[in-house]
Structures are given as structure tokens and as C-alpha cells.
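Just curious: can you write whichever protein you like plus the matching C-alpha cells?

***
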Amino acid sequence: MKTSDFDYELPPERIAQEPATVRGTERMLVLDRADGSFAHRHIADIVEYLNPGDLLVVNDTRVFPARLKGTWRDTGGAVETLLLEPRPFPAGVSLDAAVASMPEQACWRCLAGSGRPARPGQVATFGDGVLLAEVTERFGDGVCEFVLAGNEPLMDVLDKIGLTPVPPYIHRDGNDPEQARLDRERYQTIYARETGAVAAPTAGLHFTEAIFAALEAKGVRRASVTLHVGPGTFKPVKTATVEEHVMDAERYSVPGETAKAIADCKARGGRVVAVGSTSVRTLETVAAEHDGQVVPCSGSSRIFIYPPYAFRVVDAMLTNFHLPQSTLIMMVSALAGRERILAAYREAVERRYMFFSYGDCMLIL
């Protein structure tokens, strides 16, 4: 299957640069897979489309301020770092004296952007010396391993000096404190709990307590999984054919109460409605590894869902609008059909929906 089969035309002005003024007022395109019809609604109207006994599954990962801007200590040159995931502390590495003297140390895999390639032994400073970072290993494509050191636990330091890692298509210069405050608040679901994501599960950004209360009153139940979204969610498909692309791994966990809620939902004839591609990936990964069942477990997902694909767990999905030729538009095409998805995207462009992370959403039934 050609990657170009998942392309579409998107005017740049349709890419949302800001969230909706009020959370929970975003538009929602409803796609009925039974007949391919569209309805143009708003996210609060999701209550009308879900039935008593349905189960809404959300991803409760929490985005942390993983983006850091600083300088190399030796040259003063600018360096920008995106923290990706914690790593075991490197054994037998002789650290820089200043780094070694800091009481709080942690090892992380990071993506480093700089005017020069990062090399082991180089030290960067962030927040006027509040945080030091020494390169201990270099991989490829800008990915390095850093030992981060400070006088406070890393997450406390990041809360003070880190920036919210909004996607690259949302343009930020990092010098507007009010914009930074807004991103910290709005690039986060209201139910975020488990810290570890460097990108938000954006379909969940639309929900408010009022919408959840209305769903609960109707008899729609809710359960959570955790998948820590990494930068691979934005990784472009560079191969000519879909099948050649390799997904980055993302850490997930499914608690026992969620596994039971899914089994109960299926037993009573309800639908499992996944909120976002990350919830879909988690559920389908676990089912693929456990004979079609969702069981309590944790691990890393590399599942790549594209047409044709037989979904084992997910019956319906709430999702944002995705980048052309991305793994995410391939996933929704596997659920609804490529032609129907491309038709829905054309409709959304014509109707002036907003696209991507801070944009509007689509309910696929």
C-alpha cells in the first residue's frame, strides 16, 4: 500500500495554533460507518451518540514540561532538549565534577537540537545553572543520553523551568509567559494522572467535567489506560510503502479494573469507545498479545494499525484530525475505510474545521 494513498490537501490556516477559547466547545464531525454519512455537531453532543452500557476508554497519561532551552557550558551556544524517557543510570561513567556534585541526578534519553552535534562529555546548563546535563552517550538522529543534575528532584525543576512540548506545527517562540501558561493548562487533559508523556493524547483535550457528568447520567461508563505518548506520534512515514514503516515504542499499562470493565462491557453488548489513537493502540496491543482479550498488564507498544486491520476490542473512536500520510490517519482509515476518511477530511476542510492537536474532533461510529 502506498503512503501517498493517505495524502490530502490542507490549507495552512486550518492548522489550529491555539486551543478553543473555552474547553468543551470544539466542533465534532460524526462519521457513521454504516452508511458513510456525516453530521456536524459539537463535542458536548457526544452524549447523544453514546448509549447506556457503552464504555469510554481514556488515556490518563500526563504531559510534563519536557522541553528545555539552555546553552553549552564551553561555548555558550544554544541547545534545546526534549526529554524522552528515563533510563537506567550509566555504570562506570566518570561524570563532570559539577554534575557529580549535584545531589539529585537522573539519566534520560533526550532529543538534542544544537548548532553542533552533541558528544559524550559535553555539559549543558539550563535555567541559569539550576539544571546541568552531561551527554553520556550519543545515538542517531539527535538522540542522546543525558545525566541531568540539580539541587531538587528533576520533576520539580522542570515545573519551574521546563516548557510544554507542544508539537512543531504549533508555532511558539518560548518567550511569551502568558502563552506558556496557557499551553501548560490546555495541552493537558482534565483527567491526566500518570506523568510521562511528551505529547498529549489530544482527543481527550475536549472533555470537561460537565460532559463527563452528562455521560455518567446517561449510563455511559468510563475506564482508563496509560500510554506515555512519545515524539514518535509525530514521526513522518518516510517510506514509499506503508508496510515498510517501523513504529517507535511507547510504554503502556492496563489496570485490572479497566480489563474487567471492558470484559463486562462486551458481555452486556455495549460498545468500547476509545478516546484517541493512544487508547486504541493500548487496547489493540494487549488484545493482540493475549488472544483477543484485554488483561491487566504493562509493556511497550509498537503496533502499527493500517488497512486492512481487524479490530479486536475497539468499536468506536473519538479522534482529532491527523497529518497527511501519518500513521494516525492510517489508523482511522483502518477503522472507517480510507475513502470514507479522506471524504470526511475533505468535508472538514470545506466546513472550516480546525486540524491537529488544538483543533476539532471526529467521532467514528
In short: The chain has a mean pLDDT of 95. Residues 318 and 363 are 4 Å apart (CA to CA). The first strand starts at residue 27 and ends at 31. The first helix runs from residue 46 to 49.
